[in-house]
Amino acid sequence: IAEKSVKQNDNALYEKIKTDIVSGQEAIIAAINEAFKSVRGEIANAHKTPVQSVPQNENNADLERRLSEAKAENEELKSKVAELDEKLTDAFATNRHAASFEAERIRSDLKREFTFLYEDWLEYESSTDSADNCMTLKAIIKKIFRALERNGINFKGNNK
Length: 160
What we know:
The structure is a single chain. By secondary structure, this protein is mainly alpha-helical. The protein is rod-shaped. It has 3 helices and no strands. It is 87% helix and 0% strand. The longest helix is centred in the middle third of the chain and has 72 residues, at 54-125. It has helices spanning 2-48, 54-125, 131-150. The N and C termini lie far apart (147 Å).
């Protein structure tokens, strides 16, 4: 009986160990399956999101820095262009003023010189024709042309 009891205990113990081993195997297999699912999920997520390596991040940072510098340089150049545009506008205004002043000076000089020449002309215009009057009128006309030349008016056709 004792031997039978030992055998039964051995069989029960064997069955218990066998059941525990099967349960343990099932738990291990389930854990491995869960781990595989988790790894597959991470792999799938990794394929969905782009992977940036450190050099790409550094390259992006460098590009962003250069873009920022270019924007700053662009703003500086815009400022310089505005400043130069203002100076050019001032220079044109000064040039217009100087040209206007020069034209007014020439008009004034011509008016002064031609006033005297016109008075001389009126004196001889209706005079009798004589060699002396003709010579005087020629001299008046010659003075008119010299006055024009002195004031920079070219009438000779040589385009100087």
